[in-house]
Amino acid sequence: MRAFLQKIASPRNPRTFACLDEQGICRAFRQSAQPPGPAGWHEVNEQRLTWLGTPLPKSAFARH
């Protein structure tokens, strides 16, 4: 029971996601444990504010 409670209560490392529009331009970033939704959100390795309004470099995308 204790292990179960620790698993629920322990903070998870948030993952970083970027929202790309139809042209591949970065419009927003979000950190969460799960993907925000299917509409243009892609997991990235890091968040750089200079990427907003520009296409993301291929090296930005997280590898699974």
List keywords for this structure.
single chain, 64 residues, alpha+beta, 3-stranded antiparallel sheet, 1 helix, 27% strand, elongated
Low-confidence stretches: none
Number of domains: 1
User: Average pLDDT value?
Assistant: 86
Strand pairing plus helix content: what structural class?
alpha+beta
- DSSP E strands, number: 3
What kind of sheet is the major sheet?
Answer: 3 strands, antiparallel
What's the helix count?
1
Share in β-strands: 25-35%
What does this protein look like?
- This protein is of the alpha+beta class and 64 residues long.
- It has one domain.
- Helix content is 12%, strand content 27%.
- It has one helix and three strands, in the order αβββ.
- The chain has one helix at 2-9, and strands spanning 15-20, 26-32, 41-44.
- A three-stranded antiparallel β-sheet has the order 2-1-3, with no helix packed on it.
- 6% of the residues are buried.
